[in-house]
Please model this.
Amino acid sequence: MEAEAYRGYCLQSVAAAYDVVLITSEEPSWEVPYIRDCVVLPDPTDQAALSTAGRALAERYDLAGVFTWTEWYLVPVARLARQLGLPTNAPEVMQACRNKANSRALFARHGVPSAASVGVRTVAEAEAVAERIGFPVVLKPAAHAASIGVIRVDTPEQLVAAYEFAEKAAGLGQETTSVLVEEYLDGPEVSVECVTYRGETTAVALTRKTVSDPPYFEELAHSVDADDPLLDVVTPVARAAIRSLGITKGVSHVEMRLVDGRPRLVEVNGRIAGDMIGHLVRLATGIDLPRAAADIACDRAPNLTPTRSSAAAIQLLYPKTSGTLRRLDFDGPRPPWLERVHFQRHVGDRLLLPADGGDMFTARVGYLITTAPTADLAEARAEQAARSLHLDVTPDTAGADAVGGRAA
Model:
């Protein structure tokens, strides 16, 4: 049911304005009230099967548009839209978003400030590139998402293990299985939530991010403030990045870091952001990103007029150690500003952090969302609410004492 927990708000929003026919990998459950019809595909990245399903729906309905908020489906869905004669970015544009090496090349060609980046296929190549760029460097899969396989390397001695970590995740890639060695961008991380319609891009919100301590890049928290003054600073670079990739329509999640106060591109995701960021944007500004994405897919002008001036924050919940979950509950008050508390794991589940070979899917236990007039207050409220969370884990380490207490 995690699709509902993280994307339910998207489907609910689109269904309020459109009849939805769904292509999905599992038999619909929670989606049923929001859809008119569906086709179940074991693997929606199978282009032939996806195209067959799309044509079958087109024979039954007058389709106005098609889009996805799932990273892995961006290229196949663009191809499907083109096959059906529906509005879309070109598949090669979505391919450039998915392949970070292609993105970096386009950023460089168009003068968009980014990071030095080189694709490698062996440890020896990685060592040579890292020495040339200079430590610390970042190793990452060229085509993945959710910070999976991304690791910082501070010394040559760390490189072999780091390469194996990144290479393992890269092996799951569909567009490419190569590993990138990149310059480490030292500064706070933000993202710009953008909407592009007929080639014109509007930056509707800025998301400030909290990430884990090195060497991993797990995202721990996000906040959106409708009045964030930094939005004006980063908007020109976000627009330039979108333009350099050839994106002419849709919602984009543009990640960057501020190095000495100046924005440098990390990547552009050609979809609505994950981790409930689109929901935070609506809570803070009133702008509905899923509805905007659907409108643009149907070649309709989106409504990007803010109706609120507030802030919202999400704290993503992780254990302090890998192990077996023994207790997970929230016993605090539920004030109006605590918008929701969600748990996605159960007592008895094994949790595996990146340091032990896991990722966000194996480690995260849930999230909580708060609202406030400012981001600082929303973040403080999230920390306050987290103190009422009981997250107890029995560590994997043999003979270790059980870890009990509050979430970090």
Remarks:
- The chain has four domains: 2-89, 116-183, 187-311, 313-395.
- The longest strand covers residues 200-211.
- The mean pLDDT is 93.
